[in-house]
UniProtKB/TrEMBL annotation, chain B:
PANTHER family: INNER MEMBRANE ABC TRANSPORTER PERMEASE PROTEIN YCJP, MALTOSE TRANSPORT SYSTEM PERMEASE-RELATED. The keyword Thylakoid does not apply. Residues 83-276 form the ABC transmembrane type-1 domain. The chain crosses the membrane at residues 27-45, 83-106, 118-139, 151-174, 203-227, 255-276. Keywords: Cell membrane, Membrane, Transmembrane, Transmembrane helix, Transport. Its main location: membrane. InterPro entries: BP-dep_ABC_trans_perm (IPR050901), MetI-like (IPR000515), MetI-like_sf (IPR035906). PROSITE patterns: ABC_TM1. This is Carbohydrate ABC transporter permease. It is a multi-pass membrane protein.
Length: 317, 290
């Protein structure tokens, strides 16, 4: 069947000239179909980002109004918010926490995720159950997992009992940082594993057979075949995870708490300023985070050539 | 199916080295499952202890007790109302997102037009925005227009992450559908719009369903927006109210009650994951977004 059909199919293909007029028609249709999405994204993302930028340059100062004698808030445009944010270590500490969380969590997640994918790769019985189990950490809301890990890391909790230690995990300091890394790794390493597994499954089995015939060890086959071919999937997974950790808020906020030196991320700093109604300063923190994430994303795509669009547009067989 | 016992017996006859590898793999699978489920198991176990046994670290609750569940739904916590709020916010976000996103997904997957790459780039960039930069100015705006403590104040900002996710997934699904049917419909005299409505949409139902599950789970899990724009306990979502549970005394955190409430919040998702694991994995890996 498949041998015969292509030949007539190629000759009877729809006439070429009609295509230009069809394209003009689809252009209008595309605009009509896309406009609701673009409108909503413009309203819920475009407008707030511009508003945040504007807000970050709005400096409020309180002073006595000379005519009335009351305290009055005056605003003017300037770089005062940024100057305040960049002075002393108000920025450096949350920036370092954000960055170190990203580096540590993503490294662990990739290592564990790749191992999980390799284990799950071969067909086995109970596959559906394992796949469901792997999805459980992903499906649990971050806020709930924050409370769950706070309970596990409680001073009288199961972590101290298993490790036979008396560590105050969720107070502050290095242990609190480590607790956040562990909780985040638990929740998202399976997600990395699933993305890598999808990459593994498109590697043709013949490659491994050829390698075996050529006398390559399993270890060598992993480095020379598996890793290079799974790289595109891995790069995309790492990029998504990296950008996700950089904006982390829920987990340290719930697991450890607000205004904790060792776990406060840039998102938390901005949130803290916002809840104290210092909107200008909050917007400055948020803008710094936004620019940082954009720079990291661009650098990552340039360095590793993450093929983001290919995944969405590629037609599956 | 019928060949399975045969191949297994064949494998059993294989060398000892291969049998060792099989056992190593089983062990690996067990480790993966244990890694993923152990903390969740601990949540369930802790929730089923008597409040007095809260600090017991025994692997099973000695007398099983539902006291924690009773106190989770205690009127003072407002947990029942919070569940309704979560359902309303996540449900409406999912519905609106799908209605808006389905057209964009179809256009991006099927139609040829200029600027497609740009729009795809915009949509994927949109999904990478830190939500805090949206929340700061929106909180101020919502304060000005008296939208604090309303559903729309939670639903509309949630679209910022839900819509890119939905469009991305739907695009992938429409791509996978064979084009022949649409072409046949157009040959039969359908306009592209008619072909979409009468042929593509019914066929895309499974993809739409998968996208709905993914979007719903993400919306259900949202925390930052919900905690920012609501300060009335009556309007809080389950995630927010759970983090604010207080015990009898101000400083003792009622972990047992929180674990019980956590199980209630998570259980629908775990059930959905059990039933739809295949679809969810397909959606996650096609979309590649969280």
């Amino acid at each position: 069947m498949s041998v015969i059909t292509p030949t007539p199919g190629r000759t009877v293909r729809p006439s070429r000239p009609a295509r230009t007029s069809r394209r003009a028609g689809t252009g209008g249709l595309a605009a009509a179909l896309l406009s609701p999405t673009l409108l909503v994204l413009g309203l819920v993302i475009g407008y707030p980002v511009v508003a945040a930028l504007r807000l970050s340059f709005q400096v409020s100062s309180e002073g006595i109004d000379p005519s009335t004698g009351f305290v009055a808030t005056t605003t003017h445009y300037g770089t005062g918010n940024y100057a305040a944010v960049f002075s002393d270590d108000r920025l450096l500490r949350p920036w370092w926490n954000t960055t170190s969380f990203a580096l540590a969590s993503v490294t662990l997640e990739v290592l564990i995720g790749v191992c999980m994918a390799l284990v799950m790769h071969r067909a086995f019985r109970g596959r559906a159950f394992v796949r469901a189990a792997v999805l459980v950490p992903w499906a649990i809301p971050t806020a709930i997992s924050g409370i769950l890990w706070k309970w596990i890391f409680n001073s009288q909790g199961v972590a101290n009992s298993l490790l036979d230690t008396q560590v105050l995990w969720s107070s502050d300091g290095f242990h609190a940082w480590l607790a956040v890394v562990i909780a985040d790794t638990w929740k998202t390493a399976p997600f990395v594993g699933l993305l890598v597994l999808a990459g593994l499954q498109i590697i043709p089995g013949e490659l491994y057979e050829a390698a075996r015939v050529d006398g390559a060890s399993a270890w060598r086959a992993f480095w020379r075949i598996t890793l290079p071919l799974v790289r595109p999937a891995l790069v995309v997974a790492v990029l998504f995870r990296l950008l996700d950790v950089l904006r982390m808020f829920d987990l340290p906020y719930i697991l450890v708490g607000p205004r904790k030196h060792s776990v406060e991320t840039l998102s938390m700093s901005a949130f803290n300023e916002m809840t104290n109604l210092r909107f200008g300063s909050a917007a400055a923190y948020a803008t710094v985070l936004f620019v940082y994430i954009a720079v990291v994303a661009l650098a990552f795509v340039k360095l590793f050539g993450a093929d983001l669009l290919g995944r969405g547009t590629r037609s599956e067989p | 199916m019928s060949t399975l016992p045969l191949t297994r017996s064949a494998r059993r006859g294989a060398t000892g080295g291969r049998r060792g590898a099989t056992w190593a793999r089983r062990l690996g699978i067990a480790a993966v499952v244990a890694y993923c489920l152990a903390p969740f198991y601990w949540m369930v176990v802790s929730s089923l202890r008597r409040p007095g046994d809260q600090f017991s670290n025994a692997p099973l609750p000695a007398p099983v007790s539902f006291d924690n569940y009773m106190s989770a739904f205690d009127a003072k916590n407002g947990f029942g109302q919070a569940l309704v709020n979560s359902l309303v916010v996540a449900g409406i976000t999912t519905a609106v997102t799908l209605v808006v996103g389905i057209f964009a997904g179809y256009a991006l997957a099927r139609l040829h037009f200029r600027g497609k790459t740009l729009i795809l780039t915009l949509i994927i960039a949109a999904s990478m925005f830190p939500p805090i930069i949206l929340v700061v100015p929106l909180l101020r705006l919502f304060t000005d227009i008296a939208w604090i403590n309303t559903y729309q104040a939670m639903i509309i900002p949630s679209m910022s992450f839900a819509l890119p996710l939905a469009v991305w997934n739907l695009t992938a699904f429409f791509r996978q559908m064979p084009t022949e049917l649409e072409k046949a419909a157009q040959v039969d005299g359908c306009t592209p719009a008619q072909a979409f409505r009468k042929v593509v949409l019914p066929l895309a139902a499974p993809g739409v369903f998968t996208t709905a599950i993914l979007v719903f789970i993400c919306a259900w899990n949202e925390f930052l927006i919900a905690i920012s724009v609501v300060n009335d306990r009556q309007m809080m979502t389950a995630n927010v109210i759970l983090s604010l549970f207080t015990g009898q005394y101000k400083y003792d955190q009622p972990f047992g009650t929180q674990m019980a409430a956590g199980v209630v919040v998570t259980l629908p998702l775990v059930v959905a994951v059990l039933f739809f694991q295949r679809r969810i994995v397909d959606g996650l890996t096609a979309g590649g977004l969280k």
